[in-house]
Amino acid sequence: MLDPARSFDIIGDVHGCAQTLERLLDALGYQRIKGVWRHPRRQALFLGDIVDRGPRIREALHIVHDMVEDGQAFCIMGNHEYNALGWVTPALPGSGKSFVREHTPRHARLIDETLTQFAQHPADWHDFVQWFFELPLFLDAGRFRLVHACWDKQLIEPLRQQYPDGRIDAHFLQASAVSGSFAANVCNRLLRGTDMRLPDGLTLTGGDGLTRAFFRTKFWEDDPQTYGDIVFQPDALPDDVARTPLSHTEKNALLRYAEDEPLLFVGHYWRSGRPAPIRANLACLDYSAVLYGKLAAYRLDHETCIDPRKFVWVDVERPQADP
To answer: Taking a C-beta distance cutoff of 8 angstroms, is the pair 245, 255 a contact?
Structure first.
């Protein structure tokens, strides 16, 4: 799946920012030749979430798809590609659902921009949805790994027994709609990460306008003591919640990605500021491009520790108002 003769450029969540993606590829030394972005010595690796939210979703998908088909890139699945598959896939009979991802107002809001941009291109949309099934849930290259949100070997190992290359099928997708099933646990953990319920029935409305009863958690902290030690999302917890001690049960329920594991690259988490490693073997490359943050990449060669000097990014420009 990967070209061992090449080095790699690992790219975070694009979310329909096609022009920004082209600027990043240009900055990384790729050239558009015969309609496909190419580099003579490097291969792009995308961490998923190409769709939804941004202004040029269809164009972004064509860029990534054409690079993958030409051997110039590799792409794993993000939770937004999974959501798109679930939106169009009928649920299993007797499940009480019409689709794997029910057509609720909240779900409709998340996919609306994608469906709007493809409204005049239904055949194109059909082809891309089928292509999403070709995107694996993870990539294990031995010395480095890619997953959209969270690496959980307790789920990945049995998944490999069913799907050695990490590519799921419609049956697995339908099974993932059943809460508590193996398929649901795999898709939630690998594509959405770990989370924890807010205490005392508390809910928070984030900067994206969504109200949540759970918050995303870090899966690499070795000895967290409070909620604030493990929160990993764009919106901070209220101070009193952040200071709340974690119970023994809550600590034991946390997932840990050890420091002696291979290099791991994730997207998903809406980071801000200057791109940098989280620690020596872990980096998140989602820097909120669609919120006028940065579209970030990491230039991976043969290093065994993530080098802070090898992050490359372009700032996403806000549209200028007409005079």
So the answer is: no
